[in-house]
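It is time I had a proper look at our fold encoding. Can you supply me with one protein entry, sequence and fold together? It will help me judge whether the discrete encoding reads sensibly. Leave the record below and I will have a look:
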Amino acid sequence: MPRTVWSGAISFGLVTVPINVQSAVEDHSIRFHQYHLEDMGRVRVRKYCEVEDREVRNDEIGKGYQLTKDQVIPISDEELRDLPLPTAKAIEIEAFVPLESVDPIRIGEGYYLQPSGQVAAKPYKLLRMALARSSKVAVAKYAWSGRERLGLLRVRDDVIVLHAMRWPDEIRSPEELLPPPVELTGEEIDGALALMDSMTRDELEGDEFHDAYTEAVEQIIEAKREHREPPTMPEPEEKPGELVDLMAALNESVKKARASRGEDADVHEIPKKKTAKKQPAKKTAAKKTTQKAAAKKTSGRRPRSA
């Protein structure tokens, strides 16, 4: 059972929904400690007070804001918890918007919101069903860990999920990272679309969607525990020479993508768009001159008498 990281309420107009917040994700990464290689003694980070020149315990440590070089303002956890903000005690819904209107770069970690007690069951279900039927998400404010945050509420498997969000001024502009202007042909764009089509999946399921790095580290640890040689890295597949031509690279990529999915790898080259041939301007002009001369000659004839 995951532990509760925060308790409070969702404020939806005049409706209040008591909730417990629990993390929606699990980290399965392998963690390493630091050791002294000579004797494998554990290396630890000590918390040291530079004024008293001694190590301090956790219960002696608090927060502070450095106002000047010589002045620090102490701030306690109780003062942060009792801030005169409605968001310090509740997740305040500010608006409802379509999900596609939210830039994904602003969406962060997810948390499950669990109704707290029987009194929360009905308003929780009301908000959940309203979100599901509207096909919208709620944008809310809340205060955790000494700062007010922006959040996004949505429904997943009949549970309300809260995603942390970045404030607009926290997103850097990518303009400085843009490449210099280049020209692309219609055939190159069609080739990229063909490659995307060959790599399209209905869902993220399959052997390629697993953590191969963690699996490899586990194999190394198990081999060393049993005093045997760790597994060796398999030889990489021989790759053809670097393809400089973009169309050739796209065609080759489509072949490989289809072959990896067990489809017919014999892919014809992406067809180029045909353009209509234009008649040379001189011939057209000559044709028009001939037609005018013929018309003039015909109009100049006299009609025969009966």
User: Anything to note?
Assistant: Helices lie at 77-81, 121-134, 186-198, 212-225, 246-260, 281-299. The first strand starts at residue 4 and ends at 12. The first helix runs from residue 77 to 81. Confidence is low (pLDDT under 50) at residues 274-278, 281-288, 292-306.
